[in-house]
Records
---
Amino acid sequence: MRIYEAKDYKDMSRKAANIISAQVIMKPDCTLGLATGSTPIGTYEQLVDWYNKGDIDFSEIHTANLDEYRGIERTNEQSYYYFMNHHLFSKVNIDKNNTNIPDGMNPDAIAEGKRYEEVIRSLGGVDLQLLGMGHNGHIGFNEPGTEFAKETHCVDLAESTIEANKRFFASIDEVPRQAYTMGIRTIMQAKKILILVSGEEKADIVAKAFFGPITPEVPASILQMHNDVILVADAAALSKVSK
Ligand code: GLP
């Protein structure tokens, strides 16, 4: 695992955008695995800025997002579909037909998991998977205790995740209790992984996930087994890692 320490959130976002844009320049028709949450917002802003300056071209890019809440419409401002359009897709020259997000409104969880895995396979797999990490070490929506062998599936969100995500909703009762997520196995099949972490409140989990034992209790710890992972974290997030 390569670790790049960034000064702060802005620097982390710029470094991450640099890595993504290098990937796009090296392989203009690559498949990017994308993530939501507050962490990658600055990265998307930086990519949009470079796009506006003519430095990056998304016309041949395909994307596959990590996850989506179950049971909320795409038009809901809290859906990850809405998030991706708002922060990236509507602001760059990506072909919307080339973007993929699990369908939160598919009532058939087994069928949705299979469909999404087939989408990823048909794209030839993910070239570069962007990840954030939850406070409990979750990646995508793979909560502690999830089997590493799972592919895309439906999950019940942990109470701590519902609590952490309530800031985006009018009340905690509106936070969906379930989501569709790429499984750990799906994530581990990406050729390259770029994981971003920012802020002191994630310092403990960064130390556990990347320097502690590999265990389903800390889902991100499995990334230690991937042969091409880049962690870009700011100084605050790395503050509990001994150097
Ligand atoms: C959500 C998403 C994850 C994300 C995590 C952390 O639960 N499903 O993909 O990494 O939150 O979010 P944040 O970046 O806002 O801390």
---
Amino acid sequence: MSFAYLYFALVGLKLEGKTKTFIIILYYSQSKFTVILCGTDMGEIRMNKMKITVIGAGTMGAGIAQRASQSGFAVSLVDVKDEFLKKGFEGIEKTLKKGIELGKVTEEQSKSIIENIKGTTELKEGAADTNLVIEAIFEDMEVKKKLFTELDELCDDSVIFASNTSSLSITELAKATKREDKFGGLHFFYPAAINRLVEVIAGEKTSSDTVDKLMDISQALGKTPILAKDAPGFAVNRFFVPWLNEACRMLEDNTANIPTIDKGAKDAFGIGMGPFELMNATGIPIAYHSQESLHKGLGEFYKPSERLKVQFELNETWDMTGEINDSALGTVKRRFYGVVFGVACQLAQEKVASKEDTDRGATIGLRWAQGPFALMNEVGIQEAYDMVNNIAEISNGTFKVPDLLKEQAESKKPWDLKTVRVTKENKTAIITMDRPEALNALNSKVLSDLRDIIKQIQKDEEITTVIITGSGKAFVAGADIKEMMEKSPIEAREFTYLGQAVLKELEDLNKPVIAAVNGVALGGGCELALACDIILASEKARLGFPEVGLGIHPGFGGTQRLPRLVGRAKAKELIFTADILDAKEAERIGLVNRVVAPDKLLEEARGIANKISRQAPIAIRLAKSAINKGCEMDLDTGLAYEVESVSMAFSTKDSKEGMSAFTKRRKPEFEGK
Ligand code: CAA
């Protein structure tokens, strides 16, 4: 048989409004011409090739456009007038200039970030071929609705719409379109290009697929997304705005003067600016309108303080002069804590956001040293209850202590704030290292949460495989350096034992574990991956051992497992130089099994898990143990071990089933017996 290629081309065709990519091959064989048209993987548009349209070139819109461009998305920035666009681009240039000064971006990168944003005053042009529209215009329900109705006509049905509103209902805005299921909130925080927090808001009709996509896109934007229900103030403004209001109430009832209140807030929340200084910087009208909007949605307790209203009407900034009164600081702190704790418990009770996400909102979005729930644990749960009760007592019946807090205080236990999550999908457990604010760094709490989950999975007979991945942009950035710094040598030794023990339990788990390395896996993070059976790495993954640069060396098994996997010489080179490898290089030296596109990582991991789940579970368990143990033995001992192990496998009911199914040409049905 002889054949010859005549033509080969990669073409993009527009089908049902979507651009699909095909390979066309025309060849001649056995006296016949054949044309082959095959779809490529690129039909599913890769995240970093997506186009994002941002509407509104104000401070927030311009910041979002910059972030999107910086993350590799194609970006259109739309506003009604050229002068607004010009101002938006000036803002972006200013931020990037600061970035260059700080060494965060190069001149060249800055230039290409700006060039990649196409400014236009034509909505149709900006919305053409887009995948996601983010609306960031001023807060007016009717104007926003009109815009979304127009966009609904212009955009393909598959396009997701998101609003950056901080105060309007997502459910209500979605009604202006025929795609309520593809409509959600993406609430960015100032400065949008830099602040890592984004609230993903699900309206009543937002589909779970849309929520997942908005979470994924937020991560691709380098953000830490938190999930919030469509309720007034969502998660963060629900407690942050009343925090500002409480400052004004304290001024009104003469608890203290402005400098004392600001000092109390700074001490209590570990922040650089108190509420009055902050309101002067960001604008008193925003504080007033946000409070008024909570008041309308949530009732009397949220009413703007008279003092705030007066200041808003005067259109003047707060007078920051005066002496700090140290004796009033304690009362000020208790009042702030009381309001923040009470509101945080209320919103968690209403399931607006989880306790963990509420805390994340405070630490990442507001840069508080700790979130409300961690702070309650620090001051003591009974003490926290008393502070909230005090607010309820002075609220004239407008605020009640949430039952969630009452029950917790009765239990006399601190809040259990999880740093590792686990979900079950059919027979697979997906473990997510969930401390994105610190790139999932391993501290004692993370290790203990991970240990609890490993124990739980070990006992769960329904689970046959495990996938472990990281939340946000990192897999795990190593052991927690900040926690380690505080440790004495004896404590550091205990911590190292703990890390080693937990990773050994993971390695010895009675089911296969697949590491889906989605971002950096450094030091302890790489050691976590090494304790897994199979390592898949996203193209964005970076792996290495920076410990010697910190004056220590790998301690969670890195000096032992790495040479066993990649050989002594490579292991020494990696550990001694602290070089960080990209995913391809890690694959080349055998550190990872294979490299996968970022948006396909979990899909690939699930695919492997499903394949494993179809095999005989006891055989898999015995094989895992034989490989792991065998690697520590000489060949003869290993072979002897294998004989015993495979004999055990022969004695299972599953072995009878597997072989009988083979001879009868049917699929085996394994029972794990
Ligand atoms: N421990 C504690 N906090 C960490 C951390 C770690 N290992 N890695 C990152 N973080 C925190 C940062 O301090 C930062 O917190 P703030 O926002 O409060 O400042 C947050 O995570 C985000 O990090 P960056 O701003 O640094 O993010 P980046 O994208 O600019 O840089 C990075 C990412 C290159 C991974 C950088 O964070 C980094 O170098 N991290 C440290 C990596 C490391 O040295 N790991 C080894 C630890 S030692 C070890 O693991 C010993 C062992 O064998 C057990």
---
Amino acid sequence: MENYYQPKIETMPREELQKLQSERLAAQIKHVYENVPYYRAKMDEKGVTPDDIKGIEDLHKLPFLSKDDLREAYPYGLLAAPLKDCVRIHSTSGTTGKRVVAFYTQHDIDLWEDCCARAVVAAGGTSDDVCQVCYGYGLFTGGMGLHGGSHKVGCLTLPMSSGNTARQLQFMEDLQSTILCCTPSYAAYLAESAIETGVRDRLKLKAGIFGAEAWTEEMRHDIEEKLGLKAFDIYGLTELSGPGVAFECSEQGGMHINEDHFIAEIINPVTGEVLPYGEKGELVFTSITKEAFPMIRYRTRDICVLNAEKCSCGRTHIRMSKPMGRSDDMLIIRGVNVFPSQIETVLLNKGMSANYQIIVDRVNNSDTLDINVEMTPDLFSDSIAEISKIEKDLVNSLKAMLGIMAKVHLVEPKSITRSEGKAVRVIDNRKLY
Ligand code: DLL
């Protein structure tokens, strides 16, 4: 079995890597200009030709692509390869507007699975492992992406898909799964169920590969402790292939971007200005190896920081921080910017459960912020006075973090619906008006 940790590429000196990126970028721009009239028109409008793009130093000359472009060009307008060469589509999990449909040639699938295989290896995966994939299979990229990566590494792969928690736990125990792949919110739910049903001590999990949604360090510690594993973050998006655009190594200090396939930039989301590494801004990606659906300077809307410092794992690829929120899921409440991740940090720091829901509404022209947090069973039996004391304490901590008042309601254990995929944390009723 080939070893999918590719030291040559993942530990390549940066100069060599940038040379490779430059060559791939120049070739990709020619490919896109020749085959995607939609993007050609955008380049023409900006007066840029493929000859102007000789290397990564010219990247900033190219126009951005956004989700709006994808919607406008839906479904085939950004396709860069003949349809007969495409073997698969995947689609975003978004519930509003037109979905994004991404196309793959067999070559694209191979490269994507390589990226996921790197993530599995970075989490300690080998052909001795049993890898349980509980991301959804189907249009969502999570299931099939990690499935492909796990196969390439040679793990015994359990294609569970999401849901049916009792069956998940049964296989986890009977087949002695060592690696768990799912969203962090589902991992938290599995942990809770494993403890409740008493199987927790019979599990052999050593690593979790969790991503597809925002999660905090506090949530990481909680899951690690409850499931007895090391939790690794993984990032990606359908437009760029799916999971595996970036992944964590054993240092757990940010996610290495697969820079031989994706060039990352950070921009000011308002002005589009490129920001230096270390500054917080919107993540922008250019896919330099994809054939069917290449994204050039694609604005992800994810807000994060890039770190080019050398990682002690030996990989030279830069790292991205956990996304701190999306420029489009940042809530503006009474004029103040609020990220759900800030609320989660406060709740978990205060020892509350990760089962919470944020409800925003507008009453008499003023925004309201309510946070429902599930009580743990031991809290539930406590007195009303004790509960209101905890609520008050949370209100104060949230005020210190957010700068605005929120109402906190401790609700009964198990009263907030569990998620098997991406959790729905925010209900913004203001959109209904
Ligand atoms: O969520 C792909 C994926 C599957 C990634 C499995 C990791 C594991 P989409 O459904 O297109 O694709 O959603 C992409 O999800 O722009 C981020 O906002 C968010 N996201 C993905 N990974 C992370 C992560 C998949 N590790 C959108 N942390 C992205 C925070 C994440 N947010």
